[in-house]
Design goal:
It contains 16 helices and no strands. By secondary structure, it is an all-alpha fold.
Amino acid sequence: MKHGLHHLQRRHYLAVLALFFFPNVAYAHVKWFCGPIDASLPPVPVSQVLSQLFFTCLVGFAGLVALGGGLDALLARIVPATCEGDRRGIVVDVVVRVGLAVYAVCLWCDLAVVLWADDATGSVLTPEMVNRAHWIGLLQLMIAGMVLVPRLSLAASAGLLMLFAIGVARFGPFYMIDYLFFVGLSIYVALGQPTLRRQLRLASWRVSILTGSLSLSLMWTAVEKFLFPQWTIAVLLHHPGITAGFPFPSVATIAGFVEFSLSFYLLIGRAVLVRVVAVLLAGVFVMAMPEFGMVDVVGHIPVLVILVATLLQGETRLQQLFRSKESGPWASARAVLIRYVMILTVLMCLYYGLHAVSVWADANGLL
């Protein structure tokens, strides 16, 4: 019995190591590839989520996160922090605006439509939001043009929010939590309006808003892999080569921890580690593209744009806000560890709670 338990534990450790280095499935947005989903289905009961593998991963990744926090504090003594407002902000602004324009054109050209939607006439905002109206295509084309002109920033932002609102109307607010980074992008663009940029202090938080919205979105989809592993498993059935030979449920759990841990550091990392994480995340997204095709390429353009912006800007007021004031490596490691466990716990509780509220509201005709 003990031998079998040790063998199982060794397999868990090997799976964690293997998928930490080959985490493609962590960054393929599973809703784009597993077919139409029924959002009213309940999540996996918490008693099933909190498995032996889950706690093994929690201990392992929490340890890595704490180690990273201590190392980051040491490196911070060598590499100074930079905040929004310096000249690199101009480069970041160009990257974000051009990236959004390219993405809007791709939407208009119907290049981001899920393969399983045979009757789709186009996508609204993300690949699975199909069957758009003709006027939505025109709106996407207008956004592509307006976002390139700073004086039209408010109009471009309103257009992005309109596309997001269509998603909320069709799929519900709970479903659209996955895509909060589009709200972050729209706020970033709006605050780029020359008048607002000069008059509002909030404009100095533009990159912070971008990074924070993406971090929350990715951590949310990571939690989704714990609570709805069947969606990830549906993808793995069509791409078994990325599992490294390990059981599908185990892969779903480990991929969730990989995604959550890296995304967490977008929220809390210092000048060095936040850039390293941005490069790692962007690299894994790019490596996953040959496996998952054009939908993955186009669909993740906004994510890559934000990661490039984070790489260029580095540490922002957001990371300083979420991080402990302690500067020593041991104190930083402890603070990061506590925040990691707390944020994971809060997001899992929120997911269960908001899903229940969403289903209740839909059943009573409130959505």
